[in-house]
Amino acid sequence: MRYDSSPDIEKNPAEAGVGNVPYDERSPYVHEDGAVPGESFEYGDTFYAKMQRLAGRFKIEQRGIERVPENERTDTGFRGLLNVSTMWLSANMVVSSFALGLLGKSVFYLGFVDAILVILFFNLLGIMSVCFFSTFGPMFGLRQMVLSRFWFGWWGVKLIAVFNILACIGWSAVNSIVGAQLLHAVNSDVPGWAGILVISFCTFAVTLFGYKIVHAYEFWSWIPTFIVFLIILGVFAHSGAFVNIPMGVGTSEMGSVLSFGSVIYGFATGWTSYAADYTVYQPPTQGRRKVFFWTWLGLIIPLLFTEMLGVAVMTATSINDGDNIYMTGYTASGSGGLLAAVLLPPLGRFGQFCLVILALSIIANN
User: Fold this and answer.
1) What mean pLDDT comes out for the span 14-27?
2) Which one of 127, 331, 352, 358 is CB 3.0 to 4.6 Å from 95, fit for a cystine?
3) Can you give the pLDDT at residue 289?
């Protein structure tokens, strides 16, 4: 049997054996709806087929952007909804979200209450597009960038894909730097580049195996991170270092609110470009409202919790007009130094362990 991989199903369905071609003349490797069976990737003697067979032996996901057949969509029922919810929960219950909350005071000079309100309303607005497009995965079985061909066209979506690649590279770089700051705060002998490499290789090890392994990892990875954030909350509350910074007034306050709001909104809505990717293995019978709600739940809880915690902890840097251990730590090593100032004095070695857990939480976000 010969597998011809040259025709593109989305660009030219007739050439690929779908569309207006009679059913009995279509390629045996393509379903009537254009879906491509997983086993067809291994057919043939080409280098591509050999690499696919090798990937199959190690249980690495072999599917790329091809439509997922309905009989291969095994992410069913309540477990499927939990998978998508915990995936977003783990991806946002990370130190990167916490670091975002720090910007309210450090960059935009907002008070405590106004920063909290910005985080609440702009997150509620930002995650709506992610929730909406997540419902397209079960419906079509296609990845988000492929779905975008219907809006932007064959050539237009290529530009969108390039923008998405650049955004992913940039954001992953920022995430890795934040994780490296934490590792440096634990051990000053660990240079920044070494911390970035640790985060990058750990991320690669998880993502190499594809959809199922990513979901399996994300299903549990939020738990230790959430526990560490609760420890931070408890230790910081017990320290009495919280300062209720009053909100500003006038046009400068409005500018700061809108600027900080754009950052919060951009972080929340930034997941839209691959929202459907994480629901393509759910059946078309999965309710759209259920997918929307569980995606919304998985996003809103960690975003509000971590970012608001970041706003609260950052207020401590204003004690004694900035002459305190919190500001010293933040100046020395960013968010990692600030968290070290919160955890290390009262918890010692256990505090260092907590910082390492937070550094590794970046894997779930990347």
Assistant:
1) 42
2) 358
3) 94
pLDDT per position as a tens digit, 325-335: 999 999 988 88
Cα–Cα distance, 96 to 362 (Å, whole number): 7
Global pTM reads 0.84
Return all residues near 92 (Cβ < 8 A) that are at least 6 apart. 298, 299, 302, 303, 306, 365
| Confidence band, pLDDT 50/70/90 cuts, at residue 34 | low
Burial class (CB in 10 A: 0-12, 13-18, 19+), 154: exposed
Give me the pLDDT at residue 35, please.
65
What angle do helix axes 95-106 and 349-360 make, rounded to 10 degrees?
Answer: 100
Residue with tokens 């007034």: 249
Label residue 288 exposed, middle or buried (CB < 10 Å: 0-12, 13-18, 19+).
middle
Across 98-104, average pLDDT: 94
Q: Is 259 helix (H, G, I), strand (E, B) or coil?
A: helix
Tokens linked to 159: 């530009």
